[in-house]
Amino acid sequence: MQELVNIFVKSIFMDNMVFAYFLGMCSYLAVSKTVKTSVGLGAAVVFIQIITVPLNYLIDKYLLAAGALSWLGPEYASVDLSFLSFIMFIAIIASLVQIVEMVVEKFSPALYASLGIFLPLIAVNCAILGGSLFMQQREYQSVAEATSFGLGSGIGWALAIIAIAAIREKMRYSHIPAPLRGLGITFIITGLMGMAFMTFMGIKL
Amino acid sequence: MAEKKEKEALFSPKNMKLITNPLFIDNPITKQVLGICSALAVTVKLEPAIVMALSVTVVTGFGSLIISMLRNSIPNRIRIIVQLVVIAALVILVDQVLKAFSYEVSKQLSVFVGLIITNCIVMGRFEAFAMANKPWPSLLDGIGNGFGYGWILIVVALFRELFGSGTVLGVKLIPDAFYEMGYVNNGLVILPPMALFAVGIIIWIQRARNRSMIED
């Protein structure tokens, strides 16, 4: 249990997707103009992350990794399909995003309208695929650990985008050198936030 | 470079624009805001940055070419999945080549080779250009955007490696005499936030020189 909490907290703060690995920066920069839309996108990312990371974990463990097919019979034990993991993971993610898009459109048209084109873009949000690839690389031991990592990394990403959206809303009233306005200052502020998040480094639960 | 010379006849001024525009005015990173994630993460050292820039150029170039050749037969509703399959197949090729020929760099790049799949430059150019244009301009557009992405990557990596580790491509550039006089490598430059500052500053310089890029 403690291990699970550890992975969860670690993936939110120490290994934050945005500040430590720069994943999902494109939508992070593009959608963070208002707090409202970024809350919506953050929630969507958390949701997709909780489903895809454990699902991809199972696929990796029982279909793709070296020797994973041994449950089919001893003659399959030497099969290693791990080179297929990119295409498999992205297929799972793209189809799930499609499903979520349909569900959101049916049950919450308002959210659908405000997320607009960004919902399909979650499919190419590197934080999602990155989550699955990190899960594969760090060799988590069980589905529970993978789920806890998925949840944590999703929440970490949502936290980052909501925070930057709040700062950008306030920033509208400040004097910024014209060439730095918009994209430039957002980069620099993200850097400052990243430095703040670095203080979590080395904390052990 | 030699290969480009042979095809010189195909480089009409209009086609040349496809390559030169993305380098500055329409740069994928500083203007279109595409492909930021990997740009920042692989720039601690110069070598992985160069490899990454080349890999992305290959994937955008050939991906655009393939998508553009297929563009009339892809049903609109499932185009994203088709595009992803094309990209993923190309990325698997790049990944296997890297693993075979430069294993060390491939280890350093870790998940970021896989993340070329979700690099928005690739998808963005497919959507914006390759789906509506002939194969040859699409190839040029893909390569141009790859280069536009690449030079920013290389500038940031050069800066970070020189000031962070005192080396360039692993060769020590800052003489020992400097260290004896009390010069210390700047540890902050190696840490993630510095990449963001570096890109922010590049954007600042670029927009200050080219006022038409300023946002309100």
What attributes characterize this protein structure?
A: mainly alpha, 9 helices, 69% helix, B: 216 residues, mainly alpha, two-stranded antiparallel ribbon, 2 strands, 2% strand, globular, disordered N terminus
Uncertain runs of chain A with pLDDT below 50, 5 residues or more? Answer: none
Number of strand segments of chain B: 2
Task: Report the count of strand segments of chain A.
Answer: 0
Class of secondary structure makeup of chain A:
mainly alpha
Count of helix runs of chain B = 12
The quaternary structure here is: heterodimer
Main sheet makeup of chain B? 2 strands, antiparallel
How would you characterize the overall build of this protein?
- The complex is a heterodimer of chains A (205) and B (216).
- In chain A, 69% of the residues lie in helices and 0% in strands.
- Chain A has 205 residues and is mainly alpha-helical.
- Chain A is globular and about 70 Å long.
- Chain B has 216 residues and is an all-alpha fold.
- Chain B has one domain.
- Chain B contains 12 helices and 2 strands, in the order αααααααααββααα.
- Chain B has helices at residues 2-6, 13-20, 36-41, 46-70, 79-101, 103-109, 111-114, 120-128, 135-165, 176-180, 187-190, 192-209, and strands at 167-168, 171-172.
- Chain B has a two-stranded antiparallel sheet with strand order 1-2.
- Chain B is globular, with a radius of gyration of 19 Å.
- Chains A and B meet through helix 2, helix 4, helix 7 and helix 9 of A and helix 3, helix 5 and helix 12 of B.
